[in-house]
Amino acid sequence: MKEFAKEGTRYDVDLSDEDTPVHVKVGGDIPKFVPNINMSKWHDEAWLNMNHPDPVGPEVEKFEDDRVELAVGNNTHRYSLVGGGLSYEVIFTQRPVSNEVRFNMLFPEGLMFWYQPPLTQEEIDEGAERPENVVGSYAVYWKKRDNKYKTGKFCHIFRPRVTDIWGVWTWAEVEVLERRLIFRMDAEWLDNAHYPVVLG
Asked: Is the pLDDT of residue 32 over 90?
């Protein structure tokens, strides 16, 4: 079973399979644990850094083998190992000020984000299928393929759901805008939700 290993103020996990080296780091190399995600593939040739600008003041950090949580103010950032990959969630104890959760991103030239629109009727008629969490998501590819790169697939950023404590949920939107990753929740849904609410 894959597990996080604590290294100072960050948590590392090796998500490599038999053919492809994949490493993920949560947190950073500063005195405090911060809500950052760093992922690298093919011996750091392709990499992606996602930094959530939540102010880090008084925080509460929790760690289990397959889960890391950081509570900052009214938000809790949860990182879990699910199905061979990394799952990220934000838990809001009360109605957030904004209906958007934004990440600043850094990545090398050659990492490409491909939006996955709904299938056309023609594609459906031809037998194509696209799961609901893939519609509106982003497939992330590296500029190289074949040999050790295979298809060049780096990762996938799935469309998230937002769920309240009663289990009522709706889809959120995800958008890559230049070097920002934006998760956008329905403002009216947030107004009527029962908290805490989980985005993920």
From this structure: no
The whole-number pLDDT of residue 146 equals 86
Q: Report d(CA 20, CA 52) in Å as an integer.
A: 27
Degrees, nearest 5: CA angle 88-16-42: 100
Residue boundaries of the structural domains of the chain: 5-107+158-199
Top-confidence residue, 44 or 29: 44
- The strand ranges marked E within 107-168 are 111-116, 137-142, 153-157, 161-164
Per-residue pLDDT of 76-92, as tens digits, reads 999 999 888 899 999 99
Residue with the two structure tokens 């929790």: 62
Phi, psi torsion values for 184, nearest 5 degrees? -115, 120
Token digits of residue 119 = 């299938």
Q: Using DSSP bridges, classify how beta strands 36-41 and 22-27 pair: parallel, antiparallel or unpaired.
A: antiparallel
Whether the CB-CB separation of 125 and 114 falls below 8 Å is answered with no
Bridge partners of 101, per DSSP, are: 183
Upstream peptide bond of 196 is cis (omega within 30 degrees of 0): yes
Higher pLDDT, 199 or 146: 199
Q: How far apart are CA 197 and CA 200, in angstroms?
A: 10
% of the chain at pLDDT higher than 70: 97
Angle ∠(130,152,175) on CA atoms, nearest 5:
50
Neighbours of 154 (CB within 10 A): 24
